Amino acid sequence: RPELQAPPESYYGEEEAKKYTERNRIIKIQTEMAERCVQLLELQSDEGLLLLDIGCGSGLSGDIITEEGHYWFGMDISKDMMRVAIDREVEGELFECDIGQGFNFLPGKFDAAISVSVIQWLCNVDKTGHNAWRRLLKFFGNDFFG
């Protein structure tokens, strides 16, 4: 379990970030989980909706959102993972964010959100001053659906 080895921004450094989208097993698992996330949302719209991909990494789940005809913003703590997404020319807008610090979006900004293999990172105390309970509260206290 990578979350037990190092903080995400350290674990998913340049080397690991590149491997992430080169390993067929990882691609298959992440793609299947993203497909299931989108399926569970039961999105009903003739027009593309705006989704938030929390922990977008290299953009694998964003690819599924795009394939389904939707638009997305992706957030991740790892600059190296986002560089891979940029190199892959993903369709989403990307920005760096530690979800355990919270984030500020206007209420109603997004129609839905997905998160694949991310929330468990909030439960680790990787740095001085981190408190898993406070990080979880900060994350789940966000009101970006309005």
Compose a concise summary of this entry:
The chain has helices spanning 8-11, 14-20, 24-41, 60-67, 79-87, 132-140; strands at residues 50-54, 71-76, 93-96, 112-114. By secondary structure, it is of the alpha/beta class.
**What does the largest sheet look like?**
4 strands, parallel
Query: Roughly what fraction of the amino acids lie in strands?
Result: 5-15%
Could you report the average pLDDT, rounded to the nearest whole number? 87
> What percentage of residues falls in helices of 4 or more residues?
25-40%
- Nearest-angstrom radius of gyration? 15 Å
Strand segment count: 4
Order of helices and strands: HHHEHEHEEH
Oligomer: single chain
How does the overall form come out from the CA principal axes?
globular
Poorly predicted ranges: none
Q: Treating each run of at least 4 consecutive H or I residues as one helix, how many helices?
A: 6
The first-to-last residue Cα distance is: 34 Å
Would you spell out the secondary-structure blueprint of this structure?
Layout: H1 8-11, H2 14-20, H3 24-41, E1 50-54, H4 60-67, E2 71-76, H5 79-87, E3 93-96, E4 112-114, H6 132-140
Parallel strand pairs: 1-2, 1-4, 2-3
